[in-house]
Amino acid sequence: MTANALLLNALLPLVAELSSQLPETERYRRLLAALRTVLPADAAALLRCERGADGSDWLRPLAIDGLSPDTLGRRFRLREHPRFAALLAAGQALRFPSDSPLPDPYDGLVAHHSGAPLPVHDCMGCVLQVDGQPWGLLTLDALQPGSFAGDAPLAALQAFSNLAAATVATAARLRQLEQSVHNERQRAEHFRRHAPLAAPRLLGHSSAMRALQRDIATVAASDLAVLITGETGVGKELVAQALHAQSTRADQAFVSINCAALPDQLVESELFGHVRGAFTGAVSDRQGKFEQAHQGTLFLDEVGELPLATQAKLLRVLQSGQIQRLGLDRERTVDVRIIAATNQDLAAAVRDGRMRADFYHRLSVYPLQVPPLRAREGDVLVLAGYFLERTRSQFGLDGVRLEAAAQAALLAHRWPGNVRELEHCIRRAVLHALRRPRPPTAPLGIHAQDLALVPSSKASTHPGDPAEDPGSLPPADPAASAVADPTDTGLRQAVARYERQLVQQALEAHGYRWAPAARALQLDRANLQRLAKRLGLHAPGSPPPLR
Ligand SMILES: Nc1ncnc2c1ncn2[C@@H]1O[C@H](COP(=O)(O)OP(=O)(O)OP(=O)(O)O)[C@@H](O)[C@H]1O
User: Fold this and answer.
1) Tens of pLDDT along 328-383?
2) pLDDT 10s digits, 99-130
3) Residue among 227, 237, 343, 422 to mutate when testing ligand 1 (max atoms within 8 A of CB)
4) Which residue's alpha carbon is at the smallest distance from atom 23 of ligand 1?
5) How far is it between the farthest Cα atoms of the chain?
6) Which domains does the chain have, with CATH numbers?
């Protein structure tokens, strides 16, 4: 193989490795290994030029090959090492005569030769220039005199050094780029956490909503704990955001936690944080939601789901303002405003012993009731328009029109899943309407049947009837709820079909939320999820499959 081919063979993998995730030390080590395949030597080193605080110049080994490992811990002061100084001054590849009287910086450090000083040997090196400045040095030592004789080794070293310098420069740029991407991400994350929450659009002109808006404005300015109640999907989280956005804490964090979404063992660690080793799996220190919300607002969603023991701890935090990370003795003071929400009857939960009375009273200093959608006269169309517009722009449609019969159907429906149900219904209706052929420029018309609403659902308006109670199933569609005739299909299939209807109805009734649907079916959430999966039902939160 020619010298050039050898050089190319050694360098190509180096260039390829530039884009890999190799740590810097490994990259440099491979660079030296490649150098030694081009130019056989007993020792090679890559050293970085550095300037000390006192202005003196130093060389720090970055990678070594054939030198004792402790070399990596040394630093060479330039003025004490005339060979290094000569290499830097030369600005190009330089070979020292075998009998050069200049002391060798690697005396006693060559791995296969423990003696010092080194005997007569061959030594050459070359400076790596990056952006016109000396960046470092490559050095090669061969114990056999004459190893580097002739012009070829010098030329090869020079060519290698030029490419190595380019490699180093590119690696440095990649690192800078990674660093700036990392910094940008951190800034964005910081901004996301601390940016003032844009006041959410709490749509609705009904008198019930106007009263709620007034209540929000009244209590927002205070630091009182607020308990937001209302059926599932009425917009409790939106109300919490509105409270925060109108409070004096608006430019601080709004942190939310869904108390139903976490297993009991994790809730406390999520709320209060933990230190490394506090429990199995706590591999590092972690801030809890309270610390994240310091000076801001903490929103405890589905607060009725908190275990009793956690309620007691939370109560202490609310009274003292002191939190303690799991596994740490020390307490820290936090300044957090609590807003909690629930779709349960917490007073009943207190009576049943599922909620501590003291915790309940502490939370409900200022209760806010969000009205169900059916109690907001006319708002359903305002909201439908808003969701239609959002879906239109998501799907890149020119125009979407709600036909008169569809408007009437929306107004007639009782909306047990409230605004969330409406949101899903509109998205599903648009998808449904899109399946109909239409002239390319015509706006998409949403017909009543696209909404797939159950017309009988307004029938009952008495308090306490199934539709008033978010825990119950909505009135059933006669077609959907007819029990499958087992003689048609066999018992097993008929039962599966019936199960599927019940689960589907419960999910729809509860805005496709697992927890309340599971409660209504008297199952626990995990069992319901397994059952829905087995029955081939879609996940809550995603629009249901088209019928
Ligand atoms: N007045 C409103 N204006 C605009 N969007 C609304 C309004 N009320 C609710 N929404 C939307 O409806 C959906 C459900 O609202 P949200 O999650 O706040 O309900 P929730 O009462 O907290 O539900 P859950 O009890 O299930 O936790 C969200 O997408 C929310 O943005």
Assistant:
1) 888 899 999 999 999 999 999 999 999 999 999 999 888 999 999 999 988 999 89
2) 888 888 887 777 666 555 567 688 999 999 98
3) 237
4) 233
5) 108
6) 3-177 (3.30.450.40), 207-371 (3.40.50.300), 373-453 (1.10.8.60), 463-547 (no CATH)
State whether residue 540 is helix, strand or coil.
coil
Give the burial class of 95: count Cβ atoms within 10 A of its Cβ; 0-12 exposed, 13-18 middle, 19 or more buried.
Answer: buried
3-state secondary structure of 39: coil
Short-list 70, 61, 69, CA closest to 139: 61
Bond before 117 cis per omega within 30 degrees: yes
Query: For the segment 291-304, what is each residue's pLDDT rounded down to a tens digit?
Result: 999 999 999 999 99
Measured in Å, how far apart are the chain's first and last C-alpha atoms? 71
Dihedral through CA 241, CA 244, CA 246, CA 248, nearest 10? Answer: -170
> Which residues line ligand 1 at a C-beta cut-off of 6 Å?
201-204, 230, 232-238, 301, 341, 343, 383, 419-420, 423, 511, 513
Interface ipTM = 0.97
CA distance 47 to 59: 6
SS3 assignment, position 54: coil
Residue 3 has φ and ψ, to the nearest 5°, of -60, -40
Q: 237 alpha carbon to ligand 1 midpoint, in Å?
A: 6
- Which atom of ligand 1 is the closest one to the Cα of 516? 26
Distance from residue 388's CA to the centre of ligand 1 (Å): 16
Q: Could you tell me the distance, in angstroms and rounded to a whole number, from the CA of residue 238 to the centre of ligand 1? A: 6
Nearest CA owner, ligand 1 atom 25: 232
Q: Which atom, in ligand 1's list, is nearest to the CA of 301?
A: 27
